[in-house]
Amino acid sequence: xxxxxxxxxxxxxxxxxxxxxxxxxxxxxxxxxxxxxxxxxxxxxxxxxxxxxxxxxxxxxxxxxxxxxxxxxxxxxxxxxxxxxxxxxxxxxxxxxxxxxxxxxxxxxxxxxxxxxxxxxxxxxxxxxxxxxxxxxxxxxxxxxxxxxxxxxxxxxxxxxxxxxxxxx
Length: 169
Hints:
Shape: elongated
Largest sheet: 5 strands, parallel
Number of strands: 5
Radius of gyration: 17 Å
Helix content: 40-55%
């Protein structure tokens, strides 16, 4: 099993060349997990369709349940394209599709809506994830966003939501 992640795999020439090579091998022993932001699924549909027999699952980063929140947390992301691409993907395959959701101050109250959205889209699994600071923010900004921190002022509200929906972070 190979997990393709780190940046957006559908715009990596190296990844795309390797996927094309693996697809041509037609070796069913190689299974792949692709982690993507979902914005290029249809743009790369010819390769994706050829590669599908080798894909075990696709993980798509959402981090939101509404267009407004998506535009906040996935800067320059296109919500409508994401939703259209996920619907298209589900219509052409029954492989496992997972949704990634990094819990943070801007989106945690949308968890119930996100669960419903995933059901509507035919998403098989949700990966609830904690925030990590990869040097994107200074410590104060990160601490303000990291609602999962037990010292955060909204931590108890997050716990109430996750308990109500039987979610383990």
